[in-house]
Design a protein that fits this description.
There is one protein chain. By secondary structure, the chain is an alpha/beta fold. The protein has two domains: 3-100, no CATH class; 107-393, Purple Acid Phosphatase, chain A, domain 2, CATH 3.60.21.10. Helix content is 29%, strand content 21%. It is built from eight helices and 15 strands. It has helices at 3-24, 31-58, 77-100, 180-192, 233-238, 240-249, 309-314, 390-393, and strands spanning 107-116, 144-153, 165-169, 197-201, 227-230, 253-254, 259-264, 267-274, 298-303, 319-322, 331-332, 336-337, 351-355, 358-362, 379-386. The strands form three sheets. A seven-stranded mixed sheet has the order 1-2-15-3-4-5-6, covered by helices on one side. Helix 1 (3-24) runs antiparallel to helix 2 and helix 1 (3-24) crosses helix 3 (77-100). The longest helix has 28 residues, at 31-58. The chain starts with a helix and ends with a helix.
């Protein structure tokens, strides 16, 4: 077989199974089943090519220059064709995203600065503040926070809300592998950014023993218009009812499965929550005020997964905030993210997306269950909402 075709087939094979792993993490299946399927997918990535190469000699076939395509006829050609198609589709998608794609027009500007975490002196004596040894791997960015401010032009935004600021936090993953002092610092950074409201989009706790950290961390968040949250799939595994109760007891406002209208100055904003597919139901919007496009209040959705974008568009949300993907968490030079737990793969790994009428912001998250990040720093996002006409003023 031509070597180039063999390499292309191998690339497509890997991408097929990576896509399989990404998609199953977007499902509301039991954790043991997802873990088992993920392991099976990773095994297939390695074993299928090895088994194919070992099988060829027994069939009287050979690999290498001059063998030609006839070497694979009747010996797995249908699967190879699927792999070639998968490789070409992914190459085209990569080219579009990294070469041809432009940020959406609604993203007016952004500014990022880094905030390196330095452990406080009082953190040394407490086991709550110790980090897992993986945190100290060379070039690990798990503690290397980015503070990003993004200005978004929101169509139909009430001029009274021009300049409304939202801090978007997601995927804190309190596991005990990253010490509590880091999350106290995250809260300190957040409170210094000068926001109107704070939105937390799930995966707060992984280890139920860390639920006791909430009052000393997220319980200290402050915002004039409130601190709101939804939960995610890892919260379900860690006892989401206890997590929910602990957050509410600290004054945070739960949006899971409901909507509320919040007064903001002389106007109001509708906030809603969608924790699907893990914690049904999503908010029932039938009794909510009309959408902004109908001269109703601004609609903002908190959802753990970006896979709920079609739901947000159907219910005419102006802004959707999501997490879950971690931006890939481990990215590769030129290639970018590989593993993102979504039914659409890396398409919504992180950043700003505009699928009218909804603008979606996907956070890379604050931390991770696995305390390693490479080429994908954690982030705290400050979103500044701008009324129409800002594009002409910039």
């Amino acid at each position: 077989m031509d070597v180039a075709l063999l390499i292309l087939a191998l690339l497509g094979h890997v991408l097929l199974w990576v896509d399989f792993v990404n998609r199953i993490h977007g499902m509301a299946w039991p954790a043991w089943l997802i873990s088992s399927l993920m392991l099976a997918g990773m095994v297939c990535v390695v074993l299928v090519p090895v088994a194919y190469v070992l099988w060829l000699p027994s069939a009287g076939l050979a690999l290498g220059p001059g063998s030609g395509l006839e070497a694979v006829l009747g010996s797995g050609l249908p699967y190879l064709v699927i792999c070639w198609i998968a490789a070409l589709v992914n190459i085209a998608a990569w080219t579009w995203y990294h070469v041809l794609h432009r940020p959406p027009d609604v993203l007016l500007r952004q500014h990022t600065r880094r905030a390196k975490f330095l452990a406080p002196a009082d953190a040394d004596g407490s086991p709550d503040h110790r980090h897992h040894r993986l945190v100290y791997l060379p070039r690990n960015e798990i503690l290397d926070m980015e503070l990003t401010e993004r200005h978004l032009e929101v169509p139909h935004l009430d001029p009274a809300l021009d300049g409304l600021t939202i801090i978007h936090l997601s995927d804190l993953h309190l596991t005990g592998r990253v010490g509590k002092a880091f999350f106290r610092q995250v809260v300190h950074w957040t409170n210094e950014l000068g926001q109107d409201l704070v939105a937390i989009t799930g995966d707060v706790v992984d280890n139920s023993q860390c639920i006791d950290w909430i009052p000393d961390t997220l319980g200290r968040l402050r915002a004039p218009c409130g601190v709101y949250f939804v939960l995610g799939n890892h919260d379900v595994r860690a006892d989401f009812r206890r997590i929910h109760r602990a957050l509410v007891d600290c004054g945070l406002i739960a949006l899971g499965g409901r909507w509320i209208e919040v007064p903001v100055g002389e106007t109001s904003v509708v906030l809603a929550g969608n924790e699907l597919p893990w914690i049904p139901p999503a908010a029932d919007m039938r009794g909510a005020p009309g959408a902004a496009i109908e001269e109703g209040p601004l609609r903002i959705l908190l959802s753990h997964s970006p896979d709920q974008l079609p739901w947000a568009r159907h219910h005419r949300f102006d802004l959707m905030l999501a997490g879950h993907t971690h931006g890939g968490q481990i990215c590769f030079p030129l290639i970018g993210p590989i593993l993102t737990p979504s039914r659409v793969g890396v398409r919504y790994a992180s950043g700003v997306f505009h699928d009218p009428p909804t603008i979606m912001h996907v956070s890379r998250g604050v931390s991770g269950e696995f305390p390693v990040r490479w080429l994908c720093r954690p982030e705290i996002n400050k979103l500044v909402l701008c009324a129409g006409g800002e594009a002409d003023r910039r």
